[in-house]
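User: My collaborator sent over this chain with a note saying "see what the structure looks like." That's all I know about it. Can you take a look?
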Amino acid sequence: MKDSVYYSARKTRKGSYFKSVKLLRNNFLRLLIDYVPLSSGFKVFLYRLMGVNIPDARSVFIGKGVVLDGVFPENITIEPNVMITQGAVILTHFYDPSYEDHAFRVGKITIQKGAFIGAGAYILCDGEIGVGAVVAAASVVTKSVSDFSIVAGMPAKVIGHRGSVSLGDMPELPEVLSNK
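Assistant: Without extra context I'll predict from the sequence alone. Here is the result:
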């Protein structure tokens, strides 16, 4: 949380026109993603247009109903071989009631190589989901998750560890999806 930045609703007037255009564009892309039946690859392309940092789009799977932060999408990084399943929510900003000026806190989220985000999981942290980590369905992540950890619950707690699997031995995501 050391990289968090506070934004006050009263102090964001500067540059508000361009921020409004960005929000309008992102809301339009969000509608396309939510209501038009699209392949995962095209969803990833639209998320990249929104500003989400996805360096290797071909190896990332984003399921139906996934919500990636539309206000600060540039603060989300998704590395190769990541699966984000149906209904997951990833937010880089949230209202902080402890701050006196009606501010919300903004941070950065990185989902590292080989991570799996379960259905309906919420990631509300300023941190990282480690290499090969698993976030169980309906979990609420508020802190960073270490490499090869399995987390579950509200708030998410470590319930186990995956073996130190060599990610070099893992098949690429398109291969996994095509072998049904």
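A starting point for your reply to your collaborator: Residues 61 and 163 are 23 Å apart (CA to CA).
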